[in-house]
Design a protein that fits this description.
GO terms for molecular function: hydrolase activity. Pfam families: Abhydrolase_3. It comes from Comamonas testosteroni (strain DSM 14576 / KF-1). This is Putative esterase/lipase. The structure is a single chain. By secondary structure, the protein is an alpha+beta fold. The protein has a domain of 34 residues. The chain is 40% helix and 15% strand. It has a two-stranded parallel sheet with strand order 1-2. The N and C termini lie far apart (27 Å). The mean pLDDT is 91.
Length: 78
């Protein structure tokens, strides 16, 4: 995050949870990557907590975030 030049970082997907104390830092990193010209998708699981992927069978919003992640991976890998 504190590197001066992020332009050589590979494309990525940043996944955050709406109620995760690390959300802002992860999303800021995604913005820095995009600003550096690195193709980066930022996916937020609204109203969810850290580790929400373990809840995809119980929380509809976790399933929706998982679907967005899968779509971003499919798009990035062609």
């Amino acid at each position: 995050m504190h590197a001066k030049d992020l332009s050589k970082v590979p494309p990525g997907i940043i996944v955050s949870a709406g109620r995760d104390p690390l959300r802002d830092e992860g999303e800021a990193y995604g913005k820095r990557l995009n600003d550096a010209g690195v193709a980066t998708e930022v996916v937020r699981g609204e109203g969810l907590v850290h580790g929400f992927l373990s809840m995809i069978n119980y929380a509809p919003s976790a399933g929706k975030a998982f679907d967005r992640m899968a779509a971003a991976i499919a798009k990035a890998t062609g």
